[in-house]
Design goal:
Layout lengths: L6 E5 L9 E5 L2 E7 L5 E5 L13 E3 L2 E3 L6 E2 L5 E3 L14 E2 L1 E4 L2 E5 L26 E6 L3 H9 L4 H4 L7 H5 L2 E6 L2 E11 L3 H7 L5 E10 L3 E10 L11 E13 L2 E7 L8 H31 L13 H19 L1
Antiparallel strand pairs: 1-11, 2-3, 3-4, 4-9, 5-6, 6-7, 7-8, 10-11, 12-18, 13-14, 14-15, 15-16, 16-17, 17-18
Helix pairs in contact: 1-6
Length: 337
């Protein structure tokens, strides 16, 4: 159902502290916590003795005690204590997962630990670059993660779903082009001499038409970077004075087959005013919330409709379809190995 040997975002660093944060990731229960030295730990939320949730246990320093029979586990999963028993078999250990903090997110590797290569964490550097001002958060969405990938790869829906924030007629009417380079899918749309959407007017004060681009980039397993730039019509795209440029960073982590976490950030390279950050955040939350209503409605209909129903594809679906093909191919390869 999911690609395992890939990095996924498990949490924002500030979410993980002394307590045990429980998350379902790729249909597996996971607890996240920090050692007293501040190192992040990810452990299967299941005692290997009788499968009692470790999240219902107790922190004893860096150890986790299962509060069913009292077994204690070190951060590396080793069982350090069994009440009434001196000898502990090496196989009595909790399952742990590699975790890395990078780009202001906490990444987890749910597959073979021997394959966990930090260099394969996707490039989200804008979220931790002093030249860019980020704002972001997390949404828990009751839909299959691929529905969210479809949504972000086809932004023509902005015209209809986000008319009050980032959308207008120009987005749906402007054709997009999709290219595939190995595992990378890129969808590009250019809108020349179009009206500025409401949020852009609020953020940048556009009073005349603009030239606008959307550069959407998918990398597996489910990460999407949207590069957006707008300038007054006929203006120099390289001149920053009146440009509205930002990135939309999307790290989508499947929770179950019908739910996912959407970790997002919207860094920009202009107007470091906190008031602009607040407006950017509120506008982004409003737009994403509109998407959530669509996605969860879509999932409910998929669940209730007869299985095997085929969708009709249109030109705007090219990016999402290409991403699905990449995921499908990688799943076949992963199963084969």
């Amino acid at each position: 159902m999911f690609l395992k040997n890939w990095w996924y975002v498990a949490a924002m660093p500030e979410e993980v502290g002394d307590g045990m944060l429980q998350r379902w990731i790729l249909n597996e229960p996971v607890i996240l916590y920090r050692t007293e030295a501040g190192k992040a730990v990810a452990m299967l939320d299941m005692c290997p003795h009788r499968s009692y949730p470790l999240s219902k246990g107790t922190r004893l320093g860096d150890r986790i005690r299962c509060d069913y029979h009292g077994l204690e586990f070190e951060p590396d999963g080793k069982c350090a204590h069994i009440p009434g028993q001196k000898n502990i078999a090496p196989r009595c250990r909790a399952t742990t997962f590699p975790v890395v903090e990078k780009w202001r997110w906490l990444w987890i590797w749910m597959g073979d630990p021997a394959l966990a290569d930090e260099s394969k964490i996707p490039d989200m550097h804008w979220n931790d670059d002093p030249e860019w001002i980020p704002t972001g958060g997390r949404f828990d969405i009751d839909c299959n993660y691929q529905l969210l990938v479809d949504n972000l790869m086809d932004l023509s829906h902005e015209t209809f779903v986000h008319a009050s924030t980032i959308g207008n007629a120009a987005v749906a009417e402007a054709p997009s082009s999709t290219t595939v380079d190995g595992m990378h899918v890129r969808t590009y749309r250019q809108m020349i001499d179009c009206a500025a959407p409401p949020l852009y007017v609020k953020l940048r004060g556009f009073v005349e038409n603009i030239d606008r681009t959307q550069d959407i980039n998918f990398t597996p397993p489910s990460n999407i970077v949207i590069k957006s730039k707008s300038v007054p019509h006929g203006g120099d795209p390289a001149a920053p004075a009146m440009a509205l440029e930002y990135r939309v960073l999307n790290a989508i982590t499947p929770s179950t087959g019908k739910s996912c976490y959407h970790f997002w950030s919207v860094p920009r390279n202009f107007a470091p005013d906190p008031a602009v950050t607040k407006a950017f955040h509120e506008g982004s939350v409003r737009a994403f919330t509109e998407d959530i209503d669509v996605l969860e409605s879509q999932q409910r209909m998929v669940d209730r409709h007869s299985p095997g129903t085929r969708w009709i594809d249109i030109n705007a679906d090219s990016g999402g379809l290409a991403a699905r093909r990449v995921i499908s191919k990688l799943m076949e390869e992963e199963r084969a190995t």
